[in-house]
C-alpha cells in the first residue's frame, strides 16, 4: 500500500465534523511535516478549538504553487453506514470512510507530496494550506487569507483538491445565504382577517423568489457549462406557527442564491425584495448569513496549460456544480485557481463514501509531475 493510502487511513480516524474541533488532525499533520524539516504556521479561530495550517518549502521569494484543501467533513448522524464512518475500510480497491472523497484523499496525497518535495532542490516554492469549516460556508479559510497575502509571493496558481475525478474544473457558481424573519400579529384564528399572518408574509416572499427564479431562467445570463446553466434561488427551510388556532406572529425563511460569475447576487436580492416592497416591506427583515464568490478561470492562461502538461492528455476542462474556497483564494491572492482532485463528488456527503485507490494513485502521479516541473 502506498504512502498516501496509509496516511488517509490515519486521517479518516479523526472525526473532524464541522461542529467539532479539527485540532487533533492538524496537530498530527503539523508533527509529520515538522519532523521532516518543513515550516508550519497555524492560524486559530477565536475559540482556539480549530485551526488552519500553512506549510511552505522552497525559495519563498519566488512565485510558486499552492495546494489547498479543507479538513472538516459533513455529519454522519442519521445515515446508515455499512462500515464505521471514521474507520478507513479497504474493500474492492476502494477506501470507505467519511471524508475519503471530500476531501481527505487529496490532503493525504498533498501531504505526501510535500514530504517528497522537501528532499528536492526546488526553483519555486510549494505551499500547502489546510482549512476548517469549509462545509458550512467556506468560513474557516478566511482567517488565514490575510496572513497569506502578507507573507506569500502571489502563487503562479492554486490547486483546490476537491473531488473532480482528477479532471480540471475552472469555474463554479458563487453562493449567498439569507435568513428572512417575517413578522405578524398574534390573534385567535377565528378572527384571522383582523391580524397579519407571518406565514402569509413568508408565502409572499417565497412567491417573489419563484418569480425571480423564473426570470433568471428565461432572461438571465446562461453558461452551458453547468448542469443548470443560470443563476438559481432556492428556499431550503421554513419555520413558523405554534398552533393551528393561533395566527402566527413569526416565520423564518432560509434561502440561497447560487449565481453565475456574470451575475451580481446583490442585484438578484434587490429584485426579490422589490417584489414584496409595496405590501410587506415593514413585515420582513432579511439578513445575509454567508457568502462566497464563484470561480472563473480562463482556459487559455499559462497555469491551465501547465497543469495540462502534467496530467493525462484526455483530462477534460469544465465547470463544477458545487462550491469551493477557490473564489476566495482567487480574490485574496490575485492568482489563478483550478479545482482538481481525486474522488467523485457523487459519493460525497452520503453514507458509504469512498475513494478509489486508483484515483489516489493518479493524484500522486499528478503531484509528482507538478513538483518535477519546479525542481532543478
Description of the structure:
- This protein folds into 2 domains: 4-172 and 294-374, Zn peptidases (Aminopeptidase); 174-292, Alpha-Beta Plaits (2-Layer Sandwich).
- The chain contains 9 helices and 18 strands.
- It has helices spanning 3-12, 23-35, 100-117, 142-151, 198-219, 265-280, 302-310, 326-333, 357-372, and strands at 39-44, 51-57, 65-70, 89-91, 94-96, 126-131, 157-160, 168-172, 174-183, 187-188, 232-240, 246-247, 250-259, 284-292, 295-296, 317-319, 337-339, 354-356.
- The strands form 5 sheets. The chain has a 6-stranded mixed sheet with strand order 1-2-6-3-7-17, sandwiched between helices. A 4-stranded antiparallel sheet has the order 11-13-9-14, covered by helices on one side.
- A hairpin with a 6-residue loop joins strand 1 (39-44) and strand 2 (51-57).
- The two termini are 29 Å apart.
Can I get a quick summary?
The protein has 376 residues and is an alpha+beta fold. It has 9 helices and 18 strands.
Q: How is this fold's topology laid out?
A:
Layout: H1 3-12, H2 23-35, E1 39-44, E2 51-57, E3 65-70, E4 89-91, E5 94-96, H3 100-117, E6 126-131, H4 142-151, E7 157-160, E8 168-172, E9 174-183, E10 187-188, H5 198-219, E11 232-240, E12 246-247, E13 250-259, H6 265-280, E14 284-292, E15 295-296, H7 302-310, E16 317-319, H8 326-333, E17 337-339, E18 354-356, H9 357-372
Parallel strand pairs: 3-6, 3-7, 7-17, 8-16
Antiparallel strand pairs: 1-2, 2-6, 4-5, 5-18, 8-15, 9-13, 9-14, 10-12, 11-13
Helix pairs in contact: 1-3, 3-9, 4-8, 5-6
Enzyme class: hydrolase
EC number: 3.5.1.16
GO molecular function: acetylornithine deacetylase activity; metal ion binding
Amino acid at each position: 500500500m502506498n504512502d498516501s493510502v496509509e496516511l488517509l487511513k490515519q486521517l479518516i480516524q479523526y472525526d473532524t465534523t464541522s461542529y467539532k474541533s479539527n485540532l487533533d488532525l492538524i496537530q498530527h499533520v503539523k508533527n509529520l511535516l515538522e519532523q521532516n524539516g518543513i515550516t508550519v504556521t497555524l492560524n486559530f479561530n477565536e475559540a482556539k478549538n480549530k485551526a488552519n495550517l500553512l506549510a511552505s518549502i522552497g525559495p519563498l521569494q519566488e512565485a510558486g504553487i499552492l495546494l489547498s484543501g479543507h479538513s472538516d467533513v459533513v455529519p454522519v448522524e442519521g445515515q446508515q453506514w455499512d462500515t464505521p464512518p471514521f474507520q478507513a475500510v479497504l474493500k474492492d480497491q476502494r477506501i470507505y470512510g467519511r471524508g475519503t472523497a471530500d476531501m481527505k484523499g487529496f490532503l493525504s496525497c498533498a501531504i505526501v507530496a510535500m514530504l517528497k518535495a522537501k528532499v528536492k532542490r526546488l526553483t519555486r516554492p510549494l505551499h500547502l494550506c489546510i482549512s476548517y469549516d469549509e462545509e458550512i460556508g467556506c468560513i474557516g479559510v478566511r482567517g488565514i487569507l490575510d496572513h497569506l497575502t502578507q507573507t506569500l509571493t502571489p502563487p503562479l496558481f492554486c490547486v483546490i483538491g476537491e473531488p473532480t475525478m482528477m479532471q480540471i474544473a475552472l469555474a463554479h457558481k458563487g453562493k449567498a445565504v439569507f435568513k428572512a424573519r417575517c413578522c405578524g400579529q398574534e390573534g385567535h384564528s377565528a378572527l384571522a382577517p383582523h391580524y397579519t399572518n407571518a406565514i402569509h408574509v413568508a408565502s409572499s416572499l417565497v412567491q417573489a423568489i419563484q418569480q425571480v427564479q423564473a426570470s433568471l431562467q428565461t432572461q438571465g445570463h446562461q453558461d452551458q457549462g453547468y448542469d443548470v446553466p443560470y443563476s438559481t434561488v432556492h428556499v431550503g427551510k421554513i419555520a413558523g406557527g405554534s398552533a393551528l388556532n393561533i395566527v402566527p406572529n413569526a416565520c423564518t425563511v432560509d434561502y440561497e442564491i447560487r449565481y453565475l460569475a456574470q451575475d451580481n447576487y446583490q442585484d438578484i436580492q434587490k429584485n426579490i425584495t422589490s417584489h414584496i416592497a409595496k405590501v410587506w416591506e415593514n413585515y420582513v427583515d432579511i439578513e445575509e448569513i454567508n457568502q462566497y464568490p464563484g470561480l472563473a478561470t480562463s482556459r487559455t492562461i499559462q497555469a491551465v496549460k501547465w497543469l495540462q502538461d502534467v496530467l493525462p492528455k484526455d483530462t477534460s476542462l469544465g465547470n463544477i456544480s458545487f462550491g469551493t474556497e477557490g473564489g476566495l483564494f482567487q480574490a485574496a491572492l490575485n492568482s489563478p485557481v483550478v479545482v482538481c482532485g481525486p474522488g467523485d463528488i457523487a459519493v460525497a456527503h452520503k453514507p458509504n463514501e469512498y475513494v478509489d485507490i486508483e484515483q489516489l494513485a493518479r493524484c500522486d502521479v499528478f503531484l509528482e509531475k507538478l513538483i518535477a516541473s519546479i525542481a532543478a
